[in-house]
């Protein structure tokens, strides 16, 4: 036995799987990433042009899609052909953030007491009861984008996606980009995530927790499956909470990001089944739970990469079989809500197949 309790056989098996995973990373994963970078350049040129037109018509919608250190800020890769651009709006100041849990994963912005509507930049989107309506802002933005698409210099290659209240562009018939109006809430932390971090677990360390909470979250104007359950008009006024920056911050260090990149590549090749029961965001969520299960930094050394990937695939299978995948920061939000049972069973079968291959024959990665 070695000092850490592992046997030479275990070490040999670990180094064999690590060799295969590194090969997979250098060949498959980096090819995927390179292709996505090219697509992002192509897509962002079009989106920036459309948003420039929008700004001419309505200066309150200022494009925040900027390139910084060859990365586009505010752009999220949903899949290799699907992207989301978050458009940060200004002047949330006169509103209070109210997060009472009545719609899981959502919150409202209410005019502060003593503040007049006229003090807000968004005066015509404030409802009679004093809420800033996410749906009204999105509806206005959608009209502006539709007009901009007709005027912009890429009008031959870009179309609005019909039959949705979301603002979605189809570019070159190949890519879909959703543009989501949002407010950045830095320096505050929502009540519905107050239970985090779980006490008595050494990860994340207190400094990282403080950093994440200062980073805050975003409020997005988009559909939520939890709003569909509620019929009252007020539900459409609510904003969806997003913790993208907090999640990304937690995944620094060790092999966490490498692990996620490998899982995303496996997903695109094997888990992208009809009904889309599993998306990359589910894998990111399960990776965060895996960080809690393995809180010591040494458990995220490259030598443990195989174990962590297997652990996340096991978690995924369990979630699919139990029909539930809780949001990392907002556990009452089930990320599988609305997914069909047959699609989840199909995805679980595929995940089992990948896991079995990884456990019994690491060389099979060459075929995966």
Automatic annotation (TrEMBL):
<protein>
    <recommendedName>
        <fullName>Protein mab-21-like 2</fullName>
    </recommendedName>
</protein>
<dbReference type="Pfam" id="PF20266">
    <property type="entry name" value="Mab-21_C"/>
</dbReference>
<dbReference type="InterPro" id="IPR046903">
    <property type="entry name" value="Mab-21-like_nuc_Trfase"/>
</dbReference>
<dbReference type="Pfam" id="PF03281">
    <property type="entry name" value="Mab-21"/>
</dbReference>
<dbReference type="InterPro" id="IPR046906">
    <property type="entry name" value="Mab-21_HhH/H2TH-like"/>
</dbReference>
<dbReference type="InterPro" id="IPR024810">
    <property type="entry name" value="MAB21L/cGLR"/>
</dbReference>
<comment type="similarity">
    <text>Belongs to the mab-21 family.</text>
</comment>
<feature type="domain" description="Mab-21-like HhH/H2TH-like">
    <location>
        <begin position="255"/>
        <end position="352"/>
    </location>
</feature>
<feature type="domain" description="Mab-21-like nucleotidyltransferase">
    <location>
        <begin position="72"/>
        <end position="253"/>
    </location>
</feature>
